[in-house]
Amino acid sequence: MQGIYSLITQPQHPYPGIPPHVCQLSGLIILPSLEYPTGPVPTIPASSWADAINTRILSPIVIAQMFLPLLTHRNNSSTILFLYPSISSSLSAPYAAPEVTATRALSGFAASLRQELRLLQPSNGSSCNVDVVELRLGNVDLGPQYRSSHSRVPGTDVLAWSPQQRALYGPSYLSSIEQRPVASKGPGAIQGTPARILHHAIFDCLAPAEKTLFGRTKRKKPVVYVGRGARSYGIIGDWLPSTLVGWMLGYRSSSVWNDNGQGSETGWEKV
User: Fold this and answer.
1) CA 136, CA 134: separation in Å to the nearest integer?
2) Above 80 in pLDDT, residue 178?
3) What pLDDT sits at residue 172?
4) N or C: the chain end with fewer CB closer than 10 Å?
5) Taking the complete model, does pTM exceed 0.90, yes or no?
6) SS (H, E, C) the chain
7) CA separation, residue 124 to residues 68, 75, 76, 118, 145 (Å)
């Protein structure tokens, strides 16, 4: 942090004979890991919840807190950019509670920070030019190497559950995997948006904001959608009832308990 502070406060001499200049901190990109534990809430251990909260919620907040003094030190245009997957959180998808919890918490923090920075008045009396942008990701194709490095057979985590959990959640969980519109990183069978679109979107968010005809700086869009399904599933989750969303996606519940209170494993065992 001290090295960055020196770059943006003291004149830098890149080569002999070139006039010194002061660097500008254009923005901060915060991208938590896209890997989230999945499954019914009772099957996710407390350690996985703690890891998700610490790495996907607490760490981004601490990083933004550490960089805020640098971003607000000078009255230059800069951006705090939060990137996170949005499809599961938009649909309140079942068996994705850690992802839904983390992304919604991060979105709430970004919204509150955005309002806070708009009210900030530096000592020189000019308004603060730090924008907070949420980049909500859909399915982005990052290439075959990324897909192959994260490939695993979906549904194998059911084997680690207790017999009661398999009987209670197994059929509906496996059904949700089959009908899932997209994973956080996107399965290989789904054609995602090219990665260059994501690159262009990040560059546009970090670029200085445009000015109006009257010379005033425009506010950047608070939310930007990138990736196949990001915007459409966001609209579906906002406007359609949850029962209708579940019916559209093929989610179904299953009655697996018999009269003696014992679970039947025939549904998931066949799979």
Assistant:
1) 6
2) no
3) 83
4) N
5) no
6) CHHHHHHHHCCECCCCCCCCECCCCCEEEECCCCCCCCCCHHHCCHHHHHHHHHHHHHHHHHHHHHHHHHHCCCCCCEEEEEEEECHHHHHCCCCCHHHHHHHHHHHHHHHHHHHHHHCCCCCCCCCCCEEEEEEEECEEECCHHHHHHCCCCCCHHHHHCCHHHHHHHHHHHHHHHHHCCCCCCCCCCCCCEEHHHHHHHHHHHHCCCCECCCCCECCCCCEEEECECHHHHHHHHHHCCHHHHHHHHCCCCCCCECCCCCECCHHHHHC
7) 18, 9, 13, 15, 50
pLDDT band with cut points at 50, 70 and 90 for residue 176: confident
**Which amino acid, residue 218?**
K
Contact 165, 180 (CB under 8 A): no
Task: Tokens 């990137």: give the residue.
Answer: 83
Amino acid identity for residue 131 in this structure: D
What is the structure's pLDDT at 29?
96
